[in-house]
Amino acid sequence: MSTFTLLLGGELVRTPRLDIQTAGTRVIAADSGIRHADMLGLLPELWVGDFDSAPANLPPHLAKVPQERFPAEKDKTDGELAVAIARQSGATKLILVGAFGGARADHAFLHLALAVRLAEEGIDVLLTSGAQEGVPLLPGHAARFDYADDTLFSVLGFSELTGLTIKGAKWPLNDIEMAFGSSLTISNAVKGELEISFGSGRALLLAHPFPLPET
């Protein structure tokens, strides 16, 4: 398996779990995502984008990263361009670091939808901010996760879901139909080995393996 870490422009906290996930991977930065490189101790092999949000005063080792520039008026985001380049380079697994938060909610939504499409095309995808993780779920497949008990999670439905079953959770479900836009699967918690399956539809697991700050 060829794994690429793609540094995107969203929020990020460094965690031991994230260090393990990105260790030994190939790295591509998308525009402002290069600011995460030193935080994670990673050196990108390529920096792509239109560079309209590139950070100023980069340290020399990052300023020297090879660049692939694109015009500002283009039909793909910098993140989607990074995905395409990684796939052309043989990626079979993508870790989208900095996929959530940031100033652009539209970009965060795109990353969620893009991850689902990539999974349907056979690419293993993880979206992460360090604190939160997103994993696409495929119909007809029982997905199992190693999250600790009490880890907060939600199942985000991008369509109606049929035959939805959730095991190893505080609020389990068994073979239900869930309407598109339902909040039924928001804010559950892991109790045992989490397992999620459904018969048809599109969905993504969003989990919080790193403790949320108290408010």
UniProtKB/TrEMBL annotation:
This is Thiamine diphosphokinase. GO terms for molecular function: ATP binding; kinase activity; thiamine binding; thiamine diphosphokinase activity. One of its GO terms (biological process) is thiamine metabolic process. The keyword Hydrolase does not apply. Residues 134-204 form the Thiamin pyrophosphokinase thiamin-binding domain. NCBIfam families: thi_PPkinase. Keywords: ATP-binding, Kinase, Nucleotide-binding, Transferase. The keyword Transferase applies. Its EC number is 2.7.6.2. It comes from the Bacteria.
